[in-house]
Amino acid sequence: MFIPRHTDKLIIPFIAVILLFASSYRAKYHLRTEMPKAFFAQDTQSQKPSLEEKIAWAYWESAVMDVQWKYPYSHPLPADPPAEFQVDASALGPKASDAATRELYWRHLQRVWYEPDTWQKDYGWDFDWVSNPAASGGDWLRNAMDHLFRVR
Q1: How far apart are CA 96 and CA 106, in angstroms?
Q2: Which of 5, 10, 71, 135 is the residue whose CA sits 20 to 30 A from 79?
């Protein structure tokens, strides 16, 4: 049974603040800045990067700068590349922005998207959940269930 005391006025807000901060310190996943070997699977022996390798780096940088914010960790990528996934044709030539090349590197990104080595896990303060607690709670629950029932 709950018996009200004078100290409850101090303890309850203190516990609420602790819960707020405990739920706000969480892991965030980011794509690694270094391109995975599986994204560009061509064996190069020369020190100077080829045009194909430069194109692959440009598409990887597009994924790091633009795509990961629209489709974060553990979210599926769409079948077709989004408008954000593109490179500057003036810097790398017309082949770089060709639809077939873009589609090829989109498939490469889909292949490495779920690999653990592709992502970097950082811990920090994140108060984004305050703006939409229902969606954040659902994401937390889904991640907790994925972690509990992950097939190893």
Answers
A1: 13
A2: 135
